[in-house]
User: Fold Pulmonary surfactant-associated protein B from Coregonus suidteri.
Amino acid sequence: MEALKPAKNMVRARGSPQCVVCEFIIKEVESMLGHKKTEQEVVHALEKVCSVLPSSLSAQCKALIETYGQDIIDLLVQEADPKTICTVLGLCQDASRAFIPVMERSQVEAGGFCDVCKMAVRYIDGILEQNATEAQIEDAVRKACSFVPEGIRSKCDQLVELYEPMLVQLLLQVLDPDFVCMKVGVCPEAVQSLLGMEQCSWGPAFWCKNMDAAKRCNAVAHCKRHVWE
Assistant:
């Protein structure tokens, strides 16, 4: 889409008037879309929205679209609401997440973070294309907690705060929630009773070496999507 170009001069200002403007523009886009939220329809709405807003907002609208266009498309397709979108973009601040309590790794590993981790990795897997770059994965990791249920968002933030570098490196190799969260240390390693099953903990290099290994490690879908052409 030609209208959505890389960033110009949109300043990220948390808690500023930019937050109000962002939410207003996203709400206008939503009203144009109705229930139609395919990527093509979102792109079409973004190309039009600035022309239907009051002239006083035209420049800010164009700056928002030029700077964050692709992120807005991705988030609208996933049916994120205006507040969530503008918070993820860094233009609004979620007061409930302004302070993230610092926790020790031992607290996280013992504190029921396994399901939280898996949910975050599933979201990341859903938005990343095959062969995603490290920068794209870092961006997805930082956004992931905005999409988990509010009741576990604080735990998700704490998890990312502690493990972001490790998560990114693991996600460069594989996007399997069980494997990633086990390697991070927040999920227990499954007890394997069958001879040779411990090799499944070696990761995708073993899983995807052939169909037999993929079947043994229950990783056929992963290998087809992310490794095999």
About this structure: The longest helix spans residues 153-173. The chain has three domains: 17-93, 105-184, 197-226. The chain has a mean pLDDT of 75. The two ends are 27 Å apart (CA to CA).
